[in-house]
Amino acid sequence: MEWYWALSLLVGLVVFLMVIGLPVAFVFLGVNVVGAYLFLGGTMGLGQVVRNGVQSLQNYSLAPIPMFILMGELMLHSGMAGAAIHAVERLIRKVPGRMPIVSVVAGTLFAALSGSSMANTAMLGSSLLPQMLKSGYAPRLAIGPMVAVGGIAILIPPSALAVLLGSLAKISIAALLVAGIVPALIMAVLFVGYILIRALAGDDVKEDVAPDGGGFFQRAWPFLRDVLPLFLIFVAVVGSLLAGIATPTESAAIGVAATVIAGLAYRRLSIGVIGKTMMETAKISAMILFIIVGSITFSQILAFSGAASGLLSVITAFELTPLEVILLVLVVLLLLGCFIDQVSMMMITLPFFLPLANSVGVDLIWLGLVYLLSLEIALITPPFGLLLFVMKGVAPKEISFGTITMATLPFLGIQMAVLVLIVIWPEIALWLPKLLLAN
């Protein structure tokens, strides 16, 4: 079979199964069965699919994924994250657009502690949104920052998706984790700047002062008690990586240990909390690992059928520059992000784009960062942005999905601007991993 027919069959089958609503893990399983039978030798190929699946999970670099997920679930179910958000709210007392700014600061902080976009948005929406609407904020200004800042968890370590991307694309996980810090902080600052402009120029807000009185120390004490000690978890994870005393897997284990110690110190761990945390971690980890099994085998079938090399030969004939390859990756990812989830985007596109990037000498950290930023944008891109649905699930019933979508559009524009900035001037993000990981 010619490579283009093989490519059309495999990719077309993936698209068809997704369109009819089959879960992603089963999509890859079904396509792999068909591909293995056609291209790997019939029934013998089916046995090879099983062996490939086992081998794909015997990858030590995948170990941080369930541990980073465990950190976020511990933060969420123990109540430590909620206490940190309340502490930030008390500290930020009197600024225009106070509560939306609180959501950005607290969301960025929680992203650095949990690495979970969905948990980030759900936590902010359930704890702050009712209070913001009651205080007189327009829904478009109250909702937008919470949805947008949730995606920052993809960029800031600990990020399970960054670990997954680094593992699959053979990119330095430590460098990829560090590279996301600067774009994430730029994005958070721009979110705050936009909120300030809207608060000063429009009628979307009313004057909002923190209800808790007292002097500065009384307001700062919850922050010192409930936030600063948790920041040591971030320091433990990132610091152990940068100091070279731990691999990404070992730093993830250090992060879990630090989170457990924090939970014990705050007396927030119980058998019920631990049980729920472990169950949710197992569910999410199993879903991701199941997709990994299917997608890695899918990549091997693409290679064995000649589809990947045939497509690569056609694209390389155009003699694209590294920037043109990055732009091609960007366009495809942004289009896919309107319709499918982040893990599927990686699994479908990496078998094609990674060899192409290597063939023209694209910096893989740059490529990885463009991937992560595109995945973040996909989280809030209508019509199927995952965080839009998460917010709808925790928002009051009178808040429509259309209202949530419109509220996120200005922040989507800010994210796109940061992505363009990184594409045009990658050194904005790449200087930090080069500086800190030079040895």
Describe the structure.
By secondary structure, this protein is an all-alpha fold. The protein folds into two domains: 75 residues, no CATH class; 342 residues, no CATH class. 78% of the residues lie in helices and 0% in strands. The protein is built from 22 helices and no strands. It is globular and about 75 Å long. The N and C termini lie far apart (48 Å). The mean pLDDT is 83.
Provide a quick synopsis of the model.
78% of the residues lie in helices and 0% in strands.
Task: Outline the fold blueprint.
Blueprint lengths: L2 H17 L4 H16 L3 H15 L6 H15 L1 H12 L6 H17 L2 H18 L4 H12 L9 H10 L3 H7 L1 H21 L14 H11 L1 H15 L5 H18 L5 H35 L1 H10 L5 H15 L5 H19 L3 H15 L7 H9 L6 H24 L2 H10 L3
Helix pairs in contact: 1-2, 1-16, 2-3, 2-15, 3-15, 4-9, 4-14, 4-15, 5-6, 5-12, 6-7, 6-8, 6-11, 7-8, 7-20, 8-21, 9-18, 9-19, 10-22, 11-21, 13-14, 15-18, 16-18, 17-18, 17-19, 18-19, 19-21
